[in-house]
TrEMBL record:
Its EC number is 5.6.2.4. GO terms for biological process: DNA recombination; DNA replication initiation; DNA replication, synthesis of primer; double-strand break repair. It comes from Paramuribaculum intestinale. This is Replication restart protein PriA. The lineage of its organism: Bacteria, Pseudomonadati, Bacteroidota, Bacteroidia, Bacteroidales. Zn(2+) 2 binds at C537, C540, C555, C558. Its cofactor is Zn(2+). Binds 2 zinc ions per subunit.
Amino acid sequence: MTYAQVILPLPLQGGFTYEVPPEAERQLRIGARVIVPFGRRKFYTGIVDSVSDRKPEGYELKAIAAVLDSGSPIIKRPQIQLWNWIADYYLATVGEVMKAALPAGLKVESETYVEPVPDFEEDPKARLSEREVIVLQTLDHAAKRLTVADIEKLTGFTGVNALIGRMIDKKAVAVSEKLVERYAPRRETYVRMAFGHGDTEALHRAFDAVASARRQEAALLALTDMSGIMRGEPSEVAVKALCERADINLPILKALQQKGIVEIYRKEIGRFRYNGLVTASLPTLSDPQREALNAIHASWRDKNVTLLRGVTSSGKTELYIHLIDFVLRQRRQVLYLVPEIALTTQLTERLQRVFGDKVVIYHSKFTDNERVDIWKRLLCSDEPCVVIGARSSVLLPFGPLGLVIVDEEHETSYKQQDPAPRYNARDTAMVLARMHGAKTLLGSATPSVETYYKATTGRFGLVELTERYGAAVLPEVNVVDMKRARLRGEVKGPLSADASRTVADATANGGQAIVFINRRGFAPVAECSSCGYSPKCEHCDVTLTYHKRIDRLVCHYCGSQYPLPTVCPACKEPAIEVLGFGTERVEDEVGAAFGGATTLRMDLDTTRSKDSYQQIINDFSGRKADILIGTQMVTKGLDFAGVSAVVILSADALLNVPDFRASERAFNMMEQVAGRAGRRGTPGHVIIQSYQPAHPVLPYVASHDYLGFYSYEIEERRKFLYPPFTRIIYIYIKHRDPREVDSIAVAYTHALRQLFGNRVYGPEEPHVGRIQQLYIRKIMLKIETEASMTKVRTILRDLYERMHSVPGSPIRSAQIYYDVDPM
Ligand SMILES: Nc1ncnc2c1ncn2[C@@H]1O[C@H](COP(=O)(O)OP(=O)(O)OP(=O)(O)O)[C@@H](O)[C@H]1O
Ligand SMILES: [Zn+2]
């Protein structure tokens, strides 16, 4: 007998062992999908992790119900290795990693099917009701199994579930789980000659047979040419293309098929073949760029990871293109990670012009079928290609990977917050690269403090580009003291007089401007001007943001929506006002302030559909708007030739976050958004509005002084023992009950202190103390960098097991999870 360890998409530790039925033994491969029973009536798609012939002791085994991939497995062995690494490092389960990695289309889901019991005899003591009889007749009539939904549709009954339940008890029907595969491959219809290549005689006969039918003849002529059948260079012909070319329709082809001249067939095709032309060659590098490129190659001789620190618009992307070309020529693959889907849009075009259909894009806005297509393309062939993608593309089934590029490596969006696994795609990508013997290039104008530390202390290679490409210089930055500006009456709406002038100058000279505000919606606060009451979310401890377009208050944590009250619920005065600025309101006000100017807005609300990024970016690149208003989506990596002015509306909202990374994040964000200005010769101008102009971070932004900022920040980190001088793990505790959450947090902290001593901080209530009805507490663990993380993780896991196994322990009703290397 053989036994298989199977990974299931569940947040449970440990593997699950199943018996392999003898008939499946020969086809079973590691990495193949199997359907297995779990619990009483559930089925899951699992992945075979390993097989052995030793029967595990102690419990009864179930058997694998079906093997889905009997040919080639759906994931590759190194992927399972990577999944295990992620689960281990980020204190998650392999099942959670599997869930994040596999597109839903590769998971099979069970749906309940109902069928009549064949020789059912009505029990006189338990007669069927009238409705039950109708259901039974419907099933008989359909003569096949029906889903509950089908039955509801056919009978017009609602709430059929309970009815079916009673019918099961009466043994009139039985239910079974039907497994449905959700992936639908895309097929296209093709047409070919019914005879062999070069068969001139058959071709003549065919033309004779259509001599009196003009349109059939036209079709045949076009097919002869397009299929290359007489030229000895055969190619497949899509029906659609043929119909267009010969100006005919499908019935004409059907007629030809009936005469035995052509064959029409369907074929599965990938969704992502780039059909455009490869028009560009490799960019010619400037001298500093060429030196940097050589330095990168040189550093890879003895380092696996190299950091390229290049100021904004220094041409990092052009260097990446050269490196990609180098690796593709070795017939190896490249992973190019970007932090934001908006960036894939501009990059894809830039890369496709050089690498054509070797460019593969992958991100969460794709439909599931599209994601499965890409997965299969990588799975089935080791052809050289470059995958551009956001976070989750690090989990794809790569073949011979030669290079990983992590652009804007400092970005916090590389870290997944919720749900588990809370992994950092940048760090995971470096592990992936090492598994494949590939090199990694981290790129940024503002490297994260940790990365720059590693690069200057020899762990990573370091290459720097300090000048912008071409004639462009870094923009001039001015900080506006908003308190003073207000006193002088120089603030109108969201803009100071300086900001207005800067935007007006830019747009008057045919240039464009970007206005950055890191809040979406119309106004972040609604408040009663008479009593000060402010509506909050019923499920979360946050104030609600007013969205004007939908005229509702929205919770940005759980998405709940509420009407804007006309009278104050507290004091009954009709005095509710909305205060402050979000992107929506800024767009309104800026539009009004610059009468003739057109605006575009890019934030979560305007980019919900798949192509919306593309649309906004294309429109702004194509100068269809003068001013782009946006959240952090507009801050990084985008390359707009026309932008000469940038306004950062509320630097304070960035600077005042209670977090050890606040300064770093604020510096990065401001430096990046400033970097969008003046990228093509015309000098750029940046305005930063702040109520605390003396904040120590601002002068570094004003002088584009990354190194100065780094020296300041690294000392803070050293003094207060933060990364890179320690490693941090947050432990979160969530519970429905506010008292319970505190007592669990205190007990947990106490237990942690006995194990880790003064490395434990807290518990504390985080910035937002309740989300979706759950109260939250946070404990911080600071571990010396030299300490063994394996040991730390083992202790944490053991502690959880120990606390959790106490019968009646309140911990059993709490959610406890970890955030390793939090952002
Ligand atoms: N060698 C070159 N030849 C032609 N154009 C170049 C070259 N180097 C850079 N450029 C152009 O300069 C602009 C800025 O370059 P790029 O976008 O690569 O900068 P970057 O360093 O990636 O900037 P950021 O950090 O802001 O994303 C682009 O439009 C790019 O096409
Ligand atoms: Zn909420």
